[in-house]
Automatic annotation (TrEMBL):
Active-site residue numbers: C44
Record Pfam families: AhpC-TSA
Stored InterPro entries: AhpC/TSA, Peroxiredoxin_AhpC-typ, Peroxiredoxin_BCP/PrxQ, Thioredoxin-like_sf, Thioredoxin_domain
GO biological process, one term: cell redox homeostasis
Lineage: Bacteria, Pseudomonadati, Pseudomonadota, Alphaproteobacteria, Rhodobacterales
Cellular component terms (Gene Ontology): cytoplasm
Source organism of this protein record: Candidatus Rhodobacter oscarellae
Family: Belongs to the peroxiredoxin family. BCP/PrxQ subfamily.
Domain of life of the native organism: Bacteria
Protein name: thioredoxin-dependent peroxiredoxin
UniProt region (Disordered), positions on chain: 1-20
Length: 153
C-alpha cells in the first residue's frame, strides 16, 4: 500500500489516442492519478466529466490529470468520445499498476465477492513523490477537493 511521502512508482501504459504514457515523463508537473472501476458507469462517468470540466483549472495549478482503469484503449476512446473527455485515460489491462498501487482489492456486491478497482486518487508532486491520497473516493465534491490540494502544493 502506498503512503504519502513515498516516490510514486513509475509506469508506462497504453493510452487513449494511441501511444503510451509514462508517469515519470510528466515531471516537473504535478500529477493527479485517479483510479476508477469501469468506463461508462454512472460514478466513473461523473468523475471523468468532473475532471474534464476542471481541466483548465488543473492546468493552471500545474497539474496533469490521468485516469487509470483495466478497460482497453478502445473502450477508453469510446468513453472519451461519448462524453467529450479531455483527461488522459490509460489502460492497466493486466492490473499490474492497480495491484502495486493498492487499488486492486476484494469487493462485495449482493453478497458476492470479487476483485476490482477501488476508486482512489493520488496527488503526485513535481519531484514524483506522493503528496496526498484519497481512498474509497465518493465522487460528489472529490474533484474540487483534489483541485484545492493541487493548488496548495
Amino acid at each position: 500500500m502506498l503512503e504519502t511521502g513515498q516516490p510514486a512508482p513509475d509506469f508506462t501504459l497504453p493510452r487513449d489516442g494511441g501511444g503510451t504514457l509514462t508517469l515519470s515523463e510528466q515531471r516537473p508537473k504535478k500529477v493527479v492519478l485517479y483510479f476508477y472501476p469501469k468506463d461508462d458507469t454512472p460514478g466513473c462517468t461523473k468523475e471523468a466529466i468532473g475532471f474534464t470540466e476542471m481541466a483548465e483549472a488543473f492546468d493552471a495549478a500545474g497539474a496533469t490529470v490521468i485516469g487509470v482503469s483495466k478497460d482497453t484503449v478502445a473502450k477508453h476512446e469510446k468513453f472519451r468520445d461519448k462524453h467529450g473527455l479531455s483527461v488522459a485515460l490509460v489502460s492497466d489491462a493486466d492490473s499490474d499498476v492497480c495491484e502495486r498501487d493498492g487499488t486492486w482489492v476484494e469487493k462485495a456486491m449482493y453478497g458476492k465477492k470479487y476483485m476490482g478497482i477501488e476508486r482512489a486518487t493520488y496527488l503526485i508532486d513535481g519531484a514524483g513523490n506522493i503528496a496526498q491520497i484519497w481512498r474509497k473516493v465518493r465522487v460528489p465534491g472529490h474533484v474540487d477537493a483534489v483541485l484545492e490540494a493541487a493548488r496548495a502544493l
